[in-house]
Design goal:
Layout (H helix, E strand, L loop, with lengths): L12 H8 L3 H30 L17 H7 L2 H33 L5 H9 L6 H12 L8 H8 L15 E5 L8 E4 L2 H26 L2 H9 L4 H12 L1 H16 L3 H6 L11 H11 L3 H32 L1
Antiparallel strand pairs: 1-2
């Protein structure tokens, strides 16, 4: 009997593409295509356009795309106002992150202890997250407005209880403590006292969200692991330090990324509470970008500030995305 050998015929690239774009895959591509186009145009396209404008000479209402290179960035770096914005952003982000993490973890531990009316307290703690920063800013501005002739807000409470020595200028405080001014610095080094009320308002709104993240992490830890540690003689503090807290590191990392990018692009809370004042003591890069672009019509420098804000956020977000990608591949 004669043996017949058959060989698989090579499949062309066009045939492979036609096979790939059939059935469910074609439907999936068509469903995702509008979102892909919208993101490409309205996110990455506008990011590229902003970067291009930041390299132009567009400094008035009249469009001018003449190339000036990094001249706008150099002009911004020479401004003491920009460096005071950077100082405010560093102070705000540092205190905001630490306070939210500590308070959020503390609230999560208390709720996780199976206290009575747990659902009620959980709802109370997370309720501020349902508000916008605009609403939060309006409410806390009334609380921290000192009042010139007649005290208001917190000062009014102190006055009614005979505690006038506790009254303060709050959002009108012009002090920067300790207020160092080294020769190499373009802004006073320290903590602007007017920024503290803004940080308190931001922590009030976001600590409940942090609590929810930590609570989900605590509830995900198997009870068998805790019981095994207790059997080995661990106290509750040792259990938390050596078992619970290390297992919460992914939650902490996620919380830092989310809170960090919120703080780096903070705008509406500062606008409603202080407007960047007194002076520029509470102004952040978001407000500077708005002022340059829409108040001074310096479109190019406003785009340069926006580009630097994007770079700051990317420094925080990109390593997190790489870490998540590696974690997914390892698992």
């Amino acid at each position: 009997m004669q043996r017949v050998e058959t060989r698989a015929q090579p499949v062309s690239v066009a045939t492979r593409r036609s096979r790939w774009l059939t059935g469910d895959r074609l439907t999936a591509v068509l469903m995702l295509l509008p979102s892909i186009v919208a993101i490409a145009v309205f996110v990455y396209g506008f990011i590229a356009w902003t970067g291009y404008v930041s390299l132009s000479a567009w400094t008035s209402l009249k469009t001018d795309y003449s190339y000036v290179g990094f001249g706008n960035y150099a002009a911004i770096f020479k401004e003491p106002r920009f460096w005071s914005n950077v100082r405010n952003l560093v102070v705000f982000t540092s205190i905001f992150l630490v306070a939210c993490l500590v308070i959020g973890l503390g609230l999560a531990l208390m709720v996780d202890a199976r206290i009575r009316a747990e659902a009620f307290f959980r709802s109370v703690y997370i309720f501020p997250m349902a508000l916008s920063f605009i609403v939060t800013g309006v409410a806390w501005r009334w609380i921290f407005t000192p009042g010139d002739a007649d005290p208001t807000g917190l000062n009014l409470i102190f006055h009614n209880f005979g505690l006038d020595f506790l009254k303060g200028d709050w959002i009108a405080d012009k002090r920067v403590l300790p207020g160092w001014y080294p020769d190499w610095s373009r802004a006073r080094i320290g903590v602007p006292m007017a920024l503290i009320p803004v940080i308190i308002a931001a922590v009030w709104q976001m600590s409940g969200f942090t609590m929810a993240m930590y609570l989900a992490g605590l509830r995900a830890i198997p009870e068998d692991v805790k019981e095994a540690a207790r059997v080995d003689g661990c106290t509750e503090w040792q259990l938390f330090r050596n078992v619970t807290f290390p297992l919460l590191r992914p939650i902490t990392l996620s919380a830092v990324i989310i809170l960090g990018h919120i703080s780096l692009k903070i705008f509406d809370l500062v606008v409603t509470m202080t407007g960047g004042g007194p002076g520029n003591l509470t102004e952040v890069p978001g407000l500077l970008m708005y002022a340059l672009t829409f108040s001074q019509n310096n479109i190019a420098q406003g785009a340069a500030v926006a580009t630097m804000m994007l770079l700051l956020i990317s420094v925080l977000i990109v390593p997190y995305l790489i870490y998540n990608r590696r974690t997914e591949l390892d698992s």
